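Before a colleague's protein record goes any further, I have to sign it off. What it holds is a sequence and that sequence's fold in token form. My question to you is simply how this chain folds and whether the tokens agree. Thanks in advance; the entry in question is below:
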Amino acid sequence: VEPPLKPKLRVLGLFEGIGTGRHVLRELGLDVEKYYSSEIDKDAIRVQLHNFGDQIIHLGDVREVTSAVLDDMGEIHLLIGGSPCADLSLVNFRRKNFDASGSGVLFYEYARILEYLLKKSRERGGTPLYWLFENTCKMEKKSVEIIKRTLGCEPVTVCASQFTPMERKRYFWGNLIGMSSAIKNPGPREVPSLREVPPSYKTVVCDTLPTLTGNKEAQRS
């Protein structure tokens, strides 16, 4: 007896950026039926269009992804996203955390959509909803506690240095199967040195780098 066919993935990416989620699913060889993206940065959307064309359905501002919009999408199997960290990060001494005047409050948009999709998934039965939320490790303890309490689980910590020549620790919350054990015991892998992938306009003098941002000061090494 042949096993039942697995449904093609229907995915919603919030704060989608340049479409990394879609890229990863493609690299994993997963069959995607629909990929919805909520993003407002014009340059990021331009990169999405260049790399994926009509493979991504654009939704615009996350605050306009209402329950009616979610209902029109139909079933969603995977929700991913990482809300802006600028107002949560300890690096920003003017951070507003979750104040309504800043960007940190956008976390609650992810939580709102997650809650609604989980409710719809329970009502529908069948394929469960899987979800993943990411944000910076460098935030106030009270901010971490708020996110933990809202999402209902502890985060796992992942550093980019496990996979790339860059030190960048992030928190991940979610319900992906084996998520915690895979991160704690990633198994042997070769991490490339920065010297193996030098930018054409730079002279590389180290094997790894700290976190790079859009700030010019972070790019002087």
In short: Residues 9-191 form a domain with the Rossmann fold fold (CATH 3.40.50.150).
